[in-house]
Amino acid sequence: MNCDSGNPDYNNNDRNWTNANNGNNKKENNNTKNVNDIYNANNTPVGYKNYKGMQKGNESDKKLKYDPPADYKYEVHLCICNRPQQAFECGRCHHFFHGRIYERCKQHPLDYFLMEFHQCPYCCAPTTEAKVSKLSWAQIRKIEDASLPNDDDEW
Predict the structure, then answer these.
(1) 12-25 as b/e, with b when 16 or more CB fall inside 10 Å?
(2) Is the whole-model pTM more than 0.70?
(3) Closest Cα partner for 88 from 116, 60, 58?
(4) 96 pairs with which residues across the strands?
(5) What's the burial of 64, exposed, middle or buried (CB within 10 Å: 0-12/13-18/19+)?
(6) So where are the chain's domains?
(7) Contact partners, residue 137, CB within 8 Å, separation at least 6
(8) Is 81 within 8 Å of 105 (Cβ atoms)?
(9) pLDDT tens column, 8-23
């Protein structure tokens, strides 16, 4: 009894698996592409967008332009890492000290100088109370090294 109801006979020599698959006689799937099919005539990949200019004929579109907003302010931060040392006077204890008060450089925020003052070395007052001295460091040293009258007295 022959039950040929339109179903493919896979054992029949006249037909093979690809003929039985809905009549597709191709040996490869429709979704697969040849390696040469992914490049166009210019040897650029298919789907590659030309970002230098979307329209070939318009020269003004070839250059990317960025116009900042009208309220944009560009600030140039100067490096303060190599600023000179100064003489300071503490506002709390009135002692003089020489060096630099700690300030963070906006151009080099990770640099840290160990000899900068974070507080007064005598009374530990914050550096906000330290003021730049009107006297130079040489004048301060001269005053501090001067001998006082009657310094020879012994008790």
Answers:
(1) eeeeeeeeeeeeee
(2) no
(3) 116
(4) 89
(5) exposed
(6) 86-145
(7) 85, 86, 87, 98
(8) yes
(9) 555 555 444 444 445 4
Tokens of 90: 């503490």
- Residue type at 2 in one-letter notation: N
What is the SS3 string spanning the chain?
Answer: CCCCCCCCCCCCCCCCHHHHCCCCCCCCCCCCCCHHHHECCCCCECCCCCCCCCCCCCCCCCCCCCCCCCCCCCCCCCCCCCCCCEEEEECCCCCEEEECECCCCCCCCCCCCCCCECECCCCCCEHHHEEECCCCHHHHHHHHHCCCCCCCCCC
The residue type at 58:
N
Name the amino acid, one letter, at 35: V
